[in-house]
Batch of 3 targets.
Target 1
Amino acid sequence: MSHTRLRCGKGSKTVKLRQIITAGSALALAALAAGCSSSSPSSSSSSSTSAPVTSSNSASSASSLQAALGGAANYGAMESLYDKAVAAGQKSVVIYGPSAGTDTALYTAFKKSFPDITVTGVPVVGPPMTAKLSAEMSSGKHVDDIAYTGSTDMLAYITSGWFTPFKPSTLPPASALAAESYGPGDNFFGFTVGLSGMLYNTGSVQASQVPTTWTGLLNPQWKNKLVMYDPTAIGEMDDIFAHLALVPGDAGMMTGLKAQNPELSPSSDITGPLTAVAQGSKSLGIGVPYAFYLVAKAQGAPVAFYLLNDDNYTVTLYGGIVRGAPDPLAAELYEDWMYTPQAAAAIASEGEYSTVLADQGPPGMPRLSAVKVFPYIPLSGIPAADGAAITQAQHVYG
């Protein structure tokens, strides 16, 4: 995981803001470093009561768990699985992924319902994550239980035979989830959806001035004032361009933005555009994750977030149980839990969406099913679409 540089203040406030942005990022890192599926209706969360339970099958225990999970279906099966995992000594779940290790709200909420099991995130993404998993597969010395990242890497892991197929008992039908949430062969399923939009500096730009369409970014007033992720490498901006190619009116955006001379932030610098806008060196950032904005705004950054009138960008992260997982029962329980109202509430508190359409979104955002997003690219077509966008971007921006 890259270190970030967010400087919009002075002294200790600068350091604090930089540290929180680094630790608080969640969804979009997979898009920036691994390539992900996107643009599907989704949303998350409702508030829920988190009452801890013990590993017993008593009626009172079952009632407590049902309350903790917001009345989620199959809570009895989850309690039974919890008992089996604890009895087997499986009291840990290790998750590898781009936002793993920063999902503290999720891990805390899970432990309130299942206090004998601790979830630990290992922040790793892209080639380093693949290398760690490959080494464990080769040596037979397994550490990771769940792989949690974007579609490109997850599809590659299927090809390598690195998953144990598992379908969560709480999983809604595909029609009740964000599009493309079902991975091939029950190897993985969509856990969370992140929403990216436009960010502007409130000290230099008025709300009435901001462009509300993609082509509005090509207005001469924005020349030399834009910042976006570098589209010549795997990351969010190349995926955005892959989706823009599906919209006839926006097909010329790649060359059009080049003429605007935007600052290109390395795709590995996950808060680069946010940093530039917060500092005031650029007026408007393209494709900034809402979760990043929430953290920065809470720390006093002079920024505002907004969505376009149409064709907004989303990115899905997927979870799958790794073959040879040391704690498979505990891992199954965690995946079951990810589709409960309690999990959705924790996801929303971090500025993201559950893939369950019936849930609400993060604070300040509508349900994702109400947001006008890009046409989605079928899961199996994303690697080729993103690859084509990178090739074109290397020609245009190289």
Note: Residues 1-37, 40-60 have pLDDT under 50 and may be disordered.
Target 2
Amino acid sequence: MESNIGSALDNASCPIHNWYKFTAGFSYKFIDKIVDDLDEKPHRIYDPFAGCGTTLVAAQEKQIPSVGNESQQFMCDIINAKLNWNIKRQVCDEYIKGMLDTISKNQDRDIDKEYHPLLVSLYDPQTLKNLYLLRDYIKNIEINEYKLFFELALSQTLHKSALHPIAVPYIVRSKNLSHSGDAIGKFTTIVYKMLNDLETVKGIKRTALVYHDDSRYKNAKIKDGSCDMCITSPPYLNNLDYGEVSKVHTHFFGYTNNWHDITEKVRKHLVTGSTTHYVDSEFKMDEFLQTEFASKNEDLIKDLLPKYEILCAEAKKRKGKKSFNILMMEYFRDMYNVLKEMRRVLKTQSPAYLILGDSAPYGVFIPTTKYLGEVAESAGFEDYNIIKIRSRGHKWKNLSHRHNVELSENILILH
């Protein structure tokens, strides 16, 4: 298996897959490799963490039905835009003409009060005005497929016209982008590049479906045993805040407006992957040990409790005082519920392929992949095996506050 299969590097040069820059993505080649090695195509693929749609897009390219859950509405819209392949160039031409005409007529309009404060600091005034005028025109498009298509093009324009990098994974104000600005020119270039990409999948019918749902809970719209394969990459236990990482986009398009919105509308519906996902004072260990997860995973709990205490002690010494101890416990409980739902959706003995990375918060090694294999067995899978993809974390070794624990990225295969 290629060493960069767990990153989105390959997607950057692949039509449709490169329509949205997603920090935590993985390679479309992962799906291709699994499916191409089979004697018979799967009947339906399941992805509980649809993300930016890598699994669903790759399955659709092969005309394999697929279904996924994605708990962020913004990402659901991105996925649907990437799966709508019946967009017509002539219709887009008419919309572009209308956009340019409307923007030209509204250059003297005062819309400064509409700007989100975060956006004001990331774009020059003319660029920001044009971005908002484009947004307002697009939101009034009645045909949803075209509305989503243009919104996705505009989300790429947000990246390419910004003064600073905004997706690595957070805003990097210490760096200036040399080719910022020109929102109109970049937007139209992106639209026609996307239309050219659609020529490569001309005639392929839509076979993928994505639900705005949280995979920790039962999605009644997906029937028991209706899928015969799962391909996914869950959140890593590495304190990446998936709610905040897309805030430039969600604030701009109006999904969120502030920290409270991100917490209530996004974080609460995500697998616990960051210390921003919970309130320390609300975690009660006695109650946690009475949960179904704890009772079904007694051996794992015995392994986690000493690490919990070490992480708790480490947090008291550190300036940030991050409660990785709570994060660890909540992460595995959440993933237990995801794996139970995965087991329900899959037919008996159907395989699941998960790309995962091990973790070492505050230098305390957590074999996340192995632990999740054990959790999967408690959730109803019969067995598991692990394939190492690569070693990871080397680029951080020069940081004085960074641990030097050797980590790996792996494929967890469940049966």
Note: Residues 89-201 form one domain.
Target 3
Amino acid sequence: MSDKKKVYVKTFGCRTNVFDSQVMMSNLKDFDITENEAEADIVIVNSCTVTNGADVGVRGYINGVEKAGKAKVYLTGCGAHTKGESLFDNKKVFGVFGQSEKTKINGLLKEKERFYELGDLDFVDDTIVEEFIGKSRAFIKIQEGCDFRCSYCIIPFVRGDSRSMDEAKILEQVSTLAINGFGEFILTGTNVGSYGHREDRSLASLLQKMSQVRGVRRIRLGSLEPIQISEEFETMLDAPWLEKHLHIALQHTSPTMLKQMNRRNKFESDIALFQRLREKGYALGTDFIVGHPGETEELWQEAMENLKRLPLTHVHAFTYSKRDGTPSSTMKGEVNGAVAKKRLKELTDLVDANNYAFRKEFANVPLEVLVESEKDGRYHGLDQFFNKIIIDSPNDLVGNWLSVENYQVEKDGNYAQF
């Protein structure tokens, strides 16, 4: 039995944080990693700070660990830059460290004295992650930071400006993970579509090179901006290795609201792009903020009419939550919370209906499924359209790739026996 201290990593927020947590775990040479929080001697909180509510969630979690009284707590992630100082000063955490310091995690956890080390916002990851603990898919971080300055967003100020990972390192990591049995790769970053910006590289070129690595079966992308779907990118839309689902961040469909949010996309060009992609057989998702300051009933109705014109099948929609330190946080015209929730439901109901119609339309298309998990004797996975499927089978299917031809399309998902 090992006498090493056990470390549990609690990850909040986005896929970039998921990757960062794996980087930290891969650098823990003198500690044991546990997926059981209750047995941990040390808890690393990889935090999110995208909204004030995210900060509250992180702080509540830390308070819970403190109350249990067993584990020593460390804070990293985006919240280290916004709430790290107060949590450190109030002795809620033993140490605080920024994202640039995560590769030093093994040494940091050995420190005898409390520390506060944010590092810098210019770092570029070079860790090769060889395994993803508890995951059937591999996350590959290809860039960090964002050059956009949307009115509601704090992330550029805690992640820095956009910079890209070294292409050779990315391909080395993909190759290593493919050898270790991973077939699906999810590209992550703060702003994935800006990969290679200012460096004479492009996302499309990287994808082509990744697709040539032996063992790569499917590549999924994180959120892209409409202006990042280039002509070069569109030439790859028929490639069999590219997931037939793209998530393209619109945030709103009212031109007035897009201007208020300091967005770069324009609705008329957005709809033309979405229609081209839909003609190629793609399922399409987006991010959408409901109830941003200034969203009047008239503007909301305009947004809904525009949404009905979009071939959306997936949506990551949420009601606006104030983030201190952003221009939106001081804007007038706040939307009542109950009104925002009603609008959110109207939006999600529309997209849910679109998704059901899409799945029925493509019901004769074989689904290429990576089975990710098992629960209550049923297997769960995602197909090439990023739709969930639940499979009944007497065999252990976790981690397997299946081509499913016979399945039932129900409103809440697809179902099959295998």
Note: The chain has three domains: 6-117, 138-361, 367-417.
